[in-house]
Specification:
This protein is α/β, with parallel strands linked by helices. The chain is built from 6 helices and 19 strands.
């Protein structure tokens, strides 16, 4: 790894998805030394294509990331395949211990590790995830348009999901599963939109010829469905931040965890920033990439302010970073 400014990189980006790579691209173009540490486990890996991304509609996720890595490298950025074990403060910056035993240092850290989807414990469901078991209508609604869609009650947004997917199909069934039935107002909304409600626990997802065929309820009743919508609980991958005191909190929307930050992506720990699904669990690829670019600009501005302060101190013969209060 490079050795810039005496202690590594200007910025270490942890996470090589859309947010992390776009941030690194912006920083590299700003002539910052930057490295992306990527564990290689993108959240959207099971999906066949990225949708709603202008100019790249339908591009396979792996191809999009490979292009992004090439662009970052093209501007002099580094991309390293490794996980992160810990991030600690060191010599005015941060030391990052990688899972392969290496260590790198940086002045600031951007965390863009995304989230993991914690799915309902229904046999056969995970194997279909990202194919015909879905959660976002804007990511996959067009692909299942006019099909028989089921919505599994698995979170606080499940009724909302059912009403959303009704935009793409007239055949939507809401399965209460292990949750209480919809509240009176919700039941009225579902009925008004023609969404059928079926009580009973879903005990399996059934397939025929590698396609979703239906969901089986306790008691062996099977309801034919071509797609199933679930609301996963989103869990962030940030244990390595614990030494700094950065810990996840429950997201206000009830969709899982996130790392809180202000509107610029700045956390409560100076020098530690976040972007993408790690702080905004529902951001799509385009929004995550945009957030990465915006945070990168803020980081660069923060570094410029620090460098300017040091230059002013040096101009006056002061030692940068030291207190200049006259002795009494």
């Amino acid at each position: 790894m490079s050795d810039v400014l005496g202690y590594g990189y200007d910025v270490i980006v942890i996470g090589g998805g859309a947010a992390g790579l776009n941030a690194a691209l912006m920083l590299a173009r700003a002539r910052r030394s930057v490295v992306v540490v990527d564990a290689g486990a993108p959240r959207n890996a099971p999906a066949t294509g990225v949708h709603g991304l202008l100019g790249r509609e339908g591009i396979p996720p792996a191809e999009l990331l490979e292009r992004g890595r090439g662009e970052v490298r093209g501007y002099g950025g580094d991309v390293v395949r490794a996980g992160v074990d810990a991030v600690t403060r060191r010599d005015g910056g941060f030391e990052v211990a990688l899972s392969d035993g290496r260590v790198t240092r940086g002045r600031q850290v951007l965390v863009a590790t995304g989230a993991v989807d914690d799915l309902p414990d229904v046999p056969g469901l995970r194997a279909r995830w990202g194919r015909d078991v879905l959660h976002c209508p804007y990511c996959h609604g067009w692909e299942v348009r006019d099909q028989a869609i089921g919505v599994l009650a698995s979170g606080p947004m499940s009724v909302h999901q059912a009403l959303l997917f009704r935009q793409w199909s007239a055949d939507v069934t809401f399965f209460t599963h292990t949750a209480p039935g919809p509240a009176a107002e919700e039941a009225e909304q579902l009925a008004a939109r023609g969404v059928r409600v079926i009580d009973g626990e879903v005990v399996a997802v059934e397939t025929v010829d590698d396609r979703l065929a239906g969901v089986r309820l306790r008691g062996d009743r099977t309801i034919a469905r071509e797609a199933l919508v679930v609301a996963p609980r989103m869990v962030v991958r940030t244990d390595f931040l614990a030494p700094l005191g950065v810990r996840p909190a429950q997201h206000p929307a009830g969709v899982g965890e996130h790392i809180p930050a202000d509107v610029t992506g700045r956390t409560d720990v100076p020098g530690v920033w976040v972007a993408g699904n790690v702080t905004d669990p529902v951001a799509q690829v385009g929004a995550a990439a945009t957030a990465g670019a915006a945070v990168a600009a803020r980081i660069n501005a923060d570094l410029i302010a620090e460098e300017t302060r040091q230059a002013v101190e040096a101009r006056h013969g002061r030692v940068p970073g030291r207190s200049h209060t006259p002795a009494r």
